[in-house]
């Protein structure tokens, strides 16, 4: 495969598109027979879908539609093809932006999740020889549940970290010679802070790989470097959503995310015009999951903002590559004095300072003007130099003045799941 030339890529692309169309039509035939939500939504479409032009006539699916459907048909809504007795897994979204969505899987559709997760593990080089530690609460959020079962199925030694304190988790990692850690990027940093308090140097632990999910982070170079240096381990990114499935992962070349195109059709659209994003343009990722018959999503607007790169990545994979992974969330974007800002771009800059342990981004209004202030905890004898460098870098790269302020150590909140570092008090 490393000898791939342009012709082979072309041939593969055609094959991949044919394969996706084949799976898509299978899914649509099934969905239109059995799924009331999509029967109502897609009633008029003609099958089979044969071309991109046919495809783009299919309406997008919005999260709000799924939530409204559950309110109209409680408790689970109508995006189901089977009687409830056929379902075996219940999960819900975190509800950070509204009411949580309840999502059910049959045994088959859950097995599809596990298949997707096996690809994540494979891409990170995890094998049956690994001891895999899950620093995760095992609550109703889907998070690492699929990863846990996939690791078990490939024969790895799996260790649960549910209901444990950070200290207990560090002890369990060391005692069980864990080689792979799964958690959020924020929590990987937090565990390193706690280890330092315990006088433990994690670079001497057996952890060789860390797979993170839940927040953009592992694909932001400054965050990745910080976590890799704290742990002496290689960091891999993974992206998935309760609604869609585990749709992407980074490879050993890092730097971003590949979409698993054998299981998903990915499109990137301009969220204003709803047309395909132009090459090199940022846009919203739209996904169709091809193998989750128990909970299908067709042209689902994920709200994830990504860069539409037309180029093949430097690695062997031929799947679509998203440089920098998820750049931001459409619903996190704020407009401050006419400039579109994703908090993750501020995070990327803050994380370039290894002296900064935790931070919070505050949006507020003063004298009718929207303002931003970054508060942070810093571990250095020279706060003034850090503050000056941070303020300068924020102004140069974000393009407007952002205030900065140090706060006392351990005063800002810490997070084990999705971090909430944004406080929006704008009027
Ligand atoms: Zn790659």
Entry keywords:
427 residues, alpha/beta, eight-stranded mixed beta sheet, four-stranded antiparallel beta sheet, 11 helices, 20 strands, 31% helix, binds zinc ion
Give a written overview of the molecule.
With 427 residues, the protein is of the alpha/beta class. The chain is 31% helix and 25% strand. It is built from eleven helices and 20 strands. It has an eight-stranded mixed β-sheet with strand order 4-3-5-6-7-8-9-13. Helix 7 (166-175) crosses helix 8 and helix 10 packs antiparallel against helix 11 (383-398). The protein starts with 5 loop residues before the first helix and ends with a strand. Residues 1-7 have low confidence and may be disordered. The site of zinc ion has 6 residues, from loops.
Compact overview of the structure:
The protein has eleven helices and 20 strands. With 427 residues, the protein is an alpha/beta fold.
What would you report as the Rg, rounded to the nearest angstrom?
22 Å
How much β-strand is present in the residues? Answer: 15-25%
Strand order of the largest sheet: 4-3-5-6-7-8-9-13
What is the approximate shape?
globular
Gap between N and C termini: 56 Å
Helix content: 25-40%
Give the biggest sheet. 8 strands, mixed
Number of helices, where a helix is a run of at least 4 consecutive DSSP H or I residues: 11
Which residue ranges are poorly predicted, with pLDDT under 50 across at least 5 consecutive positions?
1-7
Indicate the structural class.
alpha/beta
Task: Give the beta-strand count.
Answer: 20
Q: Write out the distinct hetero groups bound to the structure.
A: zinc ion
Average of pLDDT: 91
């Amino acid at each position: 495969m490393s000898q791939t030339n342009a012709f082979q890529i072309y041939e593969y692309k055609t094959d991949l598109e044919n394969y996706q169309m084949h799976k898509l039509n299978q899914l649509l035939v099934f969905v239109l027979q059995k799924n009331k939500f999509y029967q109502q939504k897609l009633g008029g479409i003609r099958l089979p879908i044969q071309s991109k032009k046919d495809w783009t006539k299919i309406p997008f699916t919005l999260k709000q539609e799924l939530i409204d459907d559950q309110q109209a048909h409680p408790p689970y809504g109508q995006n189901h093809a089977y009687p409830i007795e056929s379902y075996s897994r219940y999960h819900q979204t975190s509800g950070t932006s509204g009411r949580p969505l309840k999502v059910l899987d049959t045994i088959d559709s859950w097995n599809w999740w596990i298949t997707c997760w096996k690809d994540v593990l494979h891409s990170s080089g995890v094998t049956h020889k690994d001891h895999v530690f899950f620093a995760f609460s095992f609550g109703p959020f889907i998070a690492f549940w699929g990863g846990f079962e996939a690791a078990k199925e490939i024969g790895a030694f799996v260790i649960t970290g549910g209901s444990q304190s950070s200290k207990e988790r560090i002890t369990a990692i060391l005692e069980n010679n864990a080689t792979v850690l799964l958690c959020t990027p924020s929590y990987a940093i937090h565990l390193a802070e706690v280890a330092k308090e315990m006088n433990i140097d994690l670079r001497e632990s057996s952890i060789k790989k860390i797979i993170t999910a839940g927040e953009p982070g592992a694909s932001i170079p400054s965050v990745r470097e910080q976590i890799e240096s704290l742990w002496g381990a290689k960091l891999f990114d993974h992206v998935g959503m309760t609604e869609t499935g585990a749709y992407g992962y980074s490879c050993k070349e890092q730097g971003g995310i590949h979409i698993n195109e054998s299981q998903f059709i990915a499109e990137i659209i301009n969220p204003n015009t709803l047309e395909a994003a132009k090459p090199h343009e940022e846009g919203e990722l739209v996904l169709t999951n091809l193998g989750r018959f128990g909970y299908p999503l067709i042209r689902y607007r994920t709200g994830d903002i990504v860069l539409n790169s037309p180029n093949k990545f430097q690695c062997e994979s031929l799947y679509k590559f998203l440089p920098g992974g998820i750049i931001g969330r459409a619903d996190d974007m704020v407009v401050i004095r006419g400039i579109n800002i994703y908090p993750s771009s501020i995070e990327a800059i803050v994380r370039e300072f290894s002296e900064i342990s935790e931070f919070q981004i505050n949006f507020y209004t003063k004298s009718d003007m929207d303002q931003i202030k970054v508060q942070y905890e810093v571990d250095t004898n020279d706060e003034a130099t850090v503050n000056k460098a941070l303020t300068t870098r924020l102004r140069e790269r974000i393009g407007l003045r952002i205030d900065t302020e140090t706060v006392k150590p351990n005063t800002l909140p810490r997070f084990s799941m999705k971090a909430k570092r944004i406080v929006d008090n704008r009027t």
